[in-house]
Specification:
Blueprint: E1 4-12, E2 16-19, H1 20-27, H2 31-38, E3 42-45, H3 52-67, E4 72-78, H4 89-96, E5 104-108, H5 114-128, E6 133-142, E7 155-165, E8 170-172, E9 177-180, E10 186-187, E11 196-197, H6 199-219, E12 230-233, H7 239-252, H8 259-263, H9 268-271, H10 278-289, E13 297-304, E14 308-316, H11 323-334, E15 337-338, H12 341-349, E16 358-359, E17 368-374, E18 377-382
Parallel strand pairs: 2-15, 4-5, 4-6, 12-13
Antiparallel strand pairs: 1-7, 1-8, 2-3, 6-7, 8-14, 9-14, 10-11, 13-14, 16-17, 17-18
Helix pairs in contact: 1-2, 3-4, 6-7
Bound molecules: coenzyme A.
Residues 30, 32-33, 36-38, 149-150, 153, 186, 197, 199, 202-203, 206, 236-237, 239-240, 305 line the site of coenzyme A.
Length: 385
């Protein structure tokens, strides 16, 4: 069988960042609650001229510059920060990236899980047409109400992945475990720009989904825990990965090396929650911070509230390590402009007026920007290159 999986990947985030120590000082919380208790240091925050389209296109651009566009016939955008009830966000991204018309473009939604559905759809397409490539983009803006328990677990970011046959990073193995359960742990009603969440329930639902997906993986003939070198998890906050690993070790009755928890959280600690992109930001961090994974099996646990989850595994390709990629991500994270709490609160409260034309202020230094709304249609431009 031709190996299929992630050939290349890149991460993008926002113009702004809020330090959680700054937030803690402002709201009278012990900064250790955020740093150690939930395991977060910073959260990315979009400027008014940034959104999932600008971040997603920014993540994908270097992939296309490195690999070319030849063979890309499918663009899948996974997000729960939908910008339109009808049009797929990928159509704007397709235009910004200058992709040819001969591409099928669609948006996938199921809370933070949808990037995994996109990845599996890509694997399916390529199983039939291995000469093609699929561009998968996961992009989200995690928003909770000001002064709510979810506030320090906000964030924003995008991960773009080029999926192909004979991948240079991770081959996705054919067997996976899946799990669906109807639960009201987290959702975002159509009339709300922030999520509704029952934090304690969402943690329980996540852990139940983990054991459910693991049991399904075992029932499908998946690998033993002992043959999995590292596991990366969806990380609404990085402490969740620790909780998950403890639960899985207990449930499956085995040891899991703790190293991956540290290395797989390096980017998520600084991005905050990136919903659909979170698991793949964790995979990027793992690949960028461990030098000895070639030929080894990694597990990926994907959870989307509501809930749908999947436990999949992959084999890391020889020659996957690339110090330049890690450097690029650090540059992107370090380039963010810190916000004061008052500025953050003002930005958080700003919503686009409905039904009128709008021009956004020019803030972002990213290669693409959201310029505003004309005749109720969102407008974008390429700013560089
Ligand atoms: N120093 C160190 N740790 C501290 C601390 C301090 N001063 N104060 C609290 N903590 C620890 C707590 O012991 C707890 O750790 P534990 O979970 O290992 O027991 C952790 O910090 C969080 O404290 P808690 O009181 O539970 O926080 P909270 O009521 O503010 O809620 C979330 C935390 C994550 C539930 C909340 O941020 C949330 O709802 N987030 C959005 C939903 C979400 O991300 N769900 C995840 C599944 S998708």
């Amino acid at each position: 069988m031709t190996p299929i999986g992630i050939h290349d990947l890149e991460l993008a985030t926002t113009h702004h960042v809020l330090s959680l120590t700054t937030l803690a000082e402002a709201n009278g919380t012990d900064p250790d609650k955020y740093r150690l208790g939930i395991g977060q240091d910073e959260m990315s925050m979009p400027a008014p001229d940034e959104d999932i389209v600008t971040m997603g296109a920014a993540a994908a651009l270097p992939l296309l510059e490195r690999n070319g566009i030849e063979g890309i016939r499918t663009l899948l955008v996974a997000t729960e920060s939908g910008l339109d009830q009808s049009k797929a966000a990928g159509v704007w991204i397709h235009q910004l990236l200058g992709l040819p018309a001969g591409v099928r473009t669609v948006e996938l939604k199921q809370a933070c899980y949808s990037a995994t559905a996109a990845l599996q759809a890509a694997v399916g397409i390529l199983s039939r047409s291995p000469q093609e490539k699929v561009l998968v983009i996961a992009a989200d803006v995690a928003r909770y109400e000001l002064d709510s328990p979810g506030e320090p677990t906000q964030g924003a970011g995008a991960v773009a992945m080029l999926v192909s046959a004979n991948p240079a990073l991770v081959e996705i193995e054919p067997v996976s475990g899946v799990h669906t359960a109807d639960v009201d742990d987290f959702w975002r009603p159509n009339d709300s720009s922030t999520a509704v969440v029952d934090g304690a329930l969402s943690i329980r639902a996540y852990l139940d989904a983990l054991t459910g997906a693991w049991d399904d993986l075992a029932a499908q003939g998946g690998p033993d825990l002992g043959s999995i070198e590292r596991i990366v998890y969806h990380q609404p906050f990085t402490k969740m990965a620790k909780k998950a690993q403890q639960r899985l070790a207990r449930h499956a009755g085995g040891e899991i090396a703790a190293d991956g928890l540290e290395t797989g959280s390096v980017y998520n600690r600084r991005l905050g929650n990136t919903y659909a992109a979170s698991l793949y930001a964790s995979l990027a961090a793992l690949l960028d911070h461990e030098q000895d994974l070639a030929g080894k099996r990694v597990g990926l646990f994907s959870y989307g509230s509501g809930s749908v989850s999947e436990f999949l595994t992959g084999i890391v390709a020889p020659g996957y390590a690339d110090s330049a990629r890690a450097r690029r991500v650090l540059e992107v994270l370090d380039a963010r402009v810190p916000l004061e709490v008052a500025e953050y609160r003002e930005l958080h409260a700003t919503e686009l007026p409905s039904g009128v034309d709008v021009q956004t202020p020019r803030v972002t230094k990213a290669p693409f920007r959201f310029t505003g709304i004309q005749g109720r249609a969102r407008q974008y431009e390429r700013t560089s290159g």
